[in-house]
Amino acid sequence: MVLEKRGALSGAKFVSFEGIDGCGKTTLMDRLAGWLEEAGIACIRVREPGGTSIGEKIREILLDTACSEMTRRTEVLLYSASRAQLIGEVIEPALEKGAWVLADRFVDATFAYQGFGRGFDLERLAMIQRWATGGLWPDKTILLDCDVAVAASRLGQRPGAKRDRIESEAGDFHKKVREGYLFLAREEPTRFVILDAAKPLEEVAKDFHERFWLAEG
Ligand SMILES: Nc1ncnc2c1ncn2[C@@H]1O[C@H](COP(=O)(O)OP(=O)(O)OP(=O)(O)O)[C@@H](O)[C@H]1O
Ligand SMILES: [Mg+2]
């Protein structure tokens, strides 16, 4: 299995960032990329859905507000297809070369959004995810947790902000997603690091540095 093989060969880590839209994932990923660069450690960054030319085409379909007729099963399978392509084309080759991989969302997004948000059975989703990923799971997952209103107000402040198909869901959907993420994190306390993302950015970054970078880096 890929995970075991690379673990033995290098200290490369696969770190995913999760949380509702606007919680600060991309901002914190930038910080980690900076620390890795200072330490002379190679890293790549990927985003979901997308990150490959095939995946970016899938992303366009998934986030297009014109695709309102998309069935929930189609949504699950498109996210999973984008992920499968990203793993095969980008993530596995990078990990095998010893580079860290920082992922802006990964499997937990499917559990949180399609499981808790849309109401799909988690066991069924896990089965699809295990198949789509070939069993490749993040070593660590950073959950940026904050209130839906806090995250929404940050998105509103982003210049040129326009809501995509998922962001346009009602507030209640995002509340369920947030609760879902917290449930997942409590289920796997070793893999997850939960950060209070409602704090000012420098405090969140400090917590991340202490609880992840100093512990893992
Ligand atoms: N702790 C924080 N306090 C205040 N503002 C923040 C904080 N973290 C991030 N921001 C700002 O909030 C906005 C959203 O942050 P960011 O783009 O990192 O979130 P995201 O989780 O990646 O969002 P999306 O899911 O839409 O990609 C940005 O303008 C960012 O500068
Ligand atoms: Mg982002």
Tell me about this structure.
With 217 residues, the chain is an alpha/beta fold. The protein has one domain: Rossmann fold, CATH 3.40.50.300. 58% of the residues lie in helices and 12% in strands. It is built from 9 helices and 5 strands; from the N terminus they run H-E-H-E-H-H-E-H-H-E-H-H-E-H. A 5-stranded parallel β-sheet has the order 2-3-1-4-5, sandwiched between helices. Helix 2 packs across helix 9, helix 3 packs antiparallel against helix 4 (72-97) and helix 5 runs antiparallel to helix 6 (122-133). The longest helix is centred in the middle third of the chain and has 26 residues, at 72-97. It is globular. The site of adenosine-5'-triphosphate has 17 residues, from helix 2, helix 7 and helix 9.
Strand order, biggest sheet? 2-3-1-4-5
Give the low-confidence spans.
Answer: 1-9
Taken in chain order, the helices and strands follow as HEHEHHEHHEHHEH
- Please summarize the sheet with the most strands: 5 strands, parallel
**Mean pLDDT, nearest integer?**
90
In the CATH scheme, what's the topology name?
Answer: Rossmann fold
Radius of gyration: 17 Å
The ligands found in this model are: adenosine-5'-triphosphate, magnesium ion
CATH architecture assignment: 3-Layer(aba) Sandwich
List descriptors.
217 residues, disordered N terminus, alpha/beta, 5 strands, 9 helices, Rossmann fold
Compact summary:
This protein is 58% helix and 12% strand. The protein is an alpha/beta fold. It is globular and about 45 Å long.
